[in-house]
Amino acid sequence: MIRKIVGLHHVTAMASDPAANNSFFTKALGLRRVKKTVNFDAPDVYHLYYGDETGAPGTIMTYFPFPDAAPGRKGAGEVGATVFAVPEGALGYWAERLQRFGVQELAEAQRFGAKRLTFAGPDGDELAIVEDPADTRAGWANETPADSAIRGFHSASIRLRDIGATAELLKFMGYEQTETEQNIARFRAPGDAGAQLIDLEAVADARHNELGAGSVHHIAFAVPDRAAQLEVRQQLLDTGYQVTPVIDRDYFWAIYFRTPGGVLFEIATNEPGFDRDEDVAHLGEALKLPTQHAHLRPFLEKHLKPLGGGVTRRDSSGKSYPS
What we know:
This protein has 323 residues and is an alpha+beta fold. Helices cover 16% and strands 36% of the residues.
């Protein structure tokens, strides 16, 4: 059994319009844009990262906004809802806020005894907010009050025709099955750092998903450092999984493998973090390029669509103001 995974690191999804995506996550949801960079494999496309003040693992929602990308088709073999945690008593605030921002498909729901708000992102992204009184993380209190701000991830759901093999994989990764409700099995990573829950949803008759705008591209699990990552990689290889070599993603190191249900899993390190090339006070302000794409800067600065707002700076007193 793998004992190094500590919960979710990030969730990466697809979008169709970078400015709309940026506005939704920084304004409606009040997250901080902690990095503005480009897709390693398609440098004419942004890679945008949103999270808490520092982009701590377990808070990071990232997007590849391919302009005019076709919508994804929901189905089996994909990550469904990405769920954010907020403090106890904050759900009413979020219901009013999301309604005020005109967020689509806003509805109340309940899972494992906890109330949640479900809603859609700009491309039909499946998102939800749930109160978690046990989550003590500090949110990015700029667009939203400190006592209501999003703390980071609560959980993510994975839809599968048959959850059996993926359930065994999660157990091998150190997760423990804790609850079952109708067609949903809940798994928890050890510890109390937040972002520890994965729900497997059995949808036996569902058609297979098609990747597109609004779809999750991959889901990443966190390990403390590169040594732990190498240990996890070897354990996965020994179990028969085909795992990529370690890839330098500038702000973390990554390995990838495909799960039995078809979902792409990543194991990402908590190091070095998003402040490796920007001060924490200025995260997400400048366009940062991977070394291999640095020569493209003149082209990219003209080609990439402006994002508009979403960056917040702090003065020497600690007061925040929009750039």
